[in-house]
Specification:
- By secondary structure, the chain is of the alpha/beta class.
- The strands form three sheets. A seven-stranded mixed β-sheet has the order 1-7-8-10-11-13-12, with helices on one face.
- Strand 4, helix 5 and strand 5 form a beta-alpha-beta unit.
- It is globular.
């Protein structure tokens, strides 16, 4: 299926979620404050690392993450909580429960949206489908064509949130599954060019849907030094326009603060990734003035 036809057919079924919340910004009465929290590549790490772990002693853990998220929500209820894929695979919790526990805990933490990583297919496309009812949030997968699979119509091309008058549009990009995932696990799923899909959807969100902030949830990987033709978040940022923020996964890249790049029009794009295993969580705060001009700051939260 051609990408334009694919987008036209699937975008028509996209649900728009209105989640307006009142919030008086502490910065000034004329500024609206939006907080983005994000994780990636948690890989079924529910418990903290043990005290004798050689690298990550006493780090991570869902209960600690949940407490931090709740504290930040108290500070600013105008918040989006996102995940960039590879929720599954890595501990016995996944082997025993098949992803049920991970999605239930994310729902309890009130995640707003996620995308799929390659390891989320490790129990097959049917395995992921069988666990989706445990998620109280949606998944955006914009460059996987799931026609003729059990996931057809079960994920979204994009989703739009209204956060205190700030319109946020989010789409998702996945890495090419061939070579990473056994073909029997993803069945007839077709991989569509992520740059072309990103250009089309970011244009729709920015110019047709009039979003103030366009976010790409990506499981493409932060950067590849040895593969010139392989698309990454860094490449995607420079080759496209209309994307404000790329939240990444797959390469387990720990960034102390977001990377700032220039897009194809010379405008700023923020790229961030929060490592792996729930050790870190990314935080980016946006401040919108009355004319919708925006500023931001970002950092990594150690859990």
């Amino acid at each position: 299926m051609k990408r334009r036809e694919f987008i036209q057919k699937t975008a028509a079924t996209t649900a728009l979620a209105g989640l307006g919340l009142s919030f008086s910004s502490f910065k000034s009465s004329d500024t609206k404050h939006l907080t983005i929290l994000h994780t990636n590549d948690v890989h079924s790490y529910i418990d903290p690392f043990p005290a004798d772990h050689p690298r990550n002693a006493n780090m991570g853990g869902v209960s600690r993450r949940a407490a931090i998220i709740e504290n930040i929500r108290q500070e600013n209820p105008n918040l989006l909580l996102l995940d960039a894929g590879d929720i599954f695979q890595g501990t016995p919790y996944f082997n025993y429960y098949g992803g049920e526990l991970e999605l239930k805990l994310m729902s309890m933490m009130k995640y707003d949206l996620g995308t799929l990583g390659n390891h989320d297919f490790d129990n097959g496309i049917e395995g992921f489908y069988s666990q989706m009812h445990n998620a109280s949030f949606d998944f955006v997968t914009s460059n996987y064509d799931f026609n003729n699979t059990v996931l057809q119509g079960k994920t979204k091309q994009y989703k739009i949130f209204d956060k205190n008058g700030i319109k946020v549009g989010i789409f998702g990009l996945g890495i090419e599954l061939a070579g990473l995932v056994d073909s029997k696990n993803y069945k007839e799923t077709k991989y569509l060019n992520p740059v072309e899909i990103a250009q089309d959807l970011s244009h729709i969100l920015k110019h047709e849907q009039k979003c103030d902030l366009v976010i790409c949830l990506s499981h493409l990987g932060y950067k590849y030094n040895d593969e010139k033709d392989k698309i990454s978040d860094v490449k995607l940022a420079t080759l496209t326009k209309d994307i404000d923020l790329i939240i990444g996964g797959h390469t387990h890249t720990f960034l102390d603060k977001p990377t700032i790049l220039k897009n194809s029009e010379g405008k700023e794009v923020i790229v961030n990734q929060a490592g792996c295993y729930g050790i870190n969580m990314g935080r980016i705060d946006f401040y919108f003035d009355n004319d919708k001009s925006k500023s931001h700051n970002g950092r990594s939260i150690i859990i």
